[in-house]
Design goal:
single chain; alpha+beta; 4-stranded antiparallel sheet; 29% helix
């Protein structure tokens, strides 16, 4: 199981990249994350998917930057960061995550990943 998880992460991290630095399957818009940060975010999304849904396979990953008016009071903006919405298909269902990214005081980028619940159907 662990080898399958590592293999899946490597496949996602090695996805073809276009000039804008996003995966070719990314239709929602570009992420500001570089290749290494994208791999770390995908790893976090996958860990959550395994724990919550028992699903290690993520595909059709999409990312888009959110406007600055999104959560205007969040400390992410005061730290020079921004929010993005990432989504992926996990075992046949679309899962959405909010990702906040900001410059780290130690160098590099700090980030958080917030899974979003599916709206209830009426």
């Amino acid at each position: 199981m662990r080898r399958l998880l590592v293999f899946t992460i490597l496949l996602v991290a090695a996805a073809p990249v276009d000039k804008a630095g996003v995966t070719r399957g990314d239709r929602a818009g570009p992420s500001r994350a570089d290749r290494r940060l994208r791999a770390d975010v995908l790893k976090g999304m996958q860990r959550y998917s395994v724990a919550a849904y028992r699903c290690a396979r993520l595909d059709r990953v999409q990312a888009q930057s959110l406007p600055t008016r999104f959560r205007t009071g969040a400390p992410v903006y005061r730290r020079g960061g921004h929010w993005e919405e990432w989504s992926a298909r996990a075992c046949g269902q679309r899962r959405t995550f909010l990702v906040a990214m900001w410059p780290s005081r130690r160098g590099g980028i700090d980030f958080t990943i917030e899974p979003q619940r599916l709206p209830k159907r009426r």
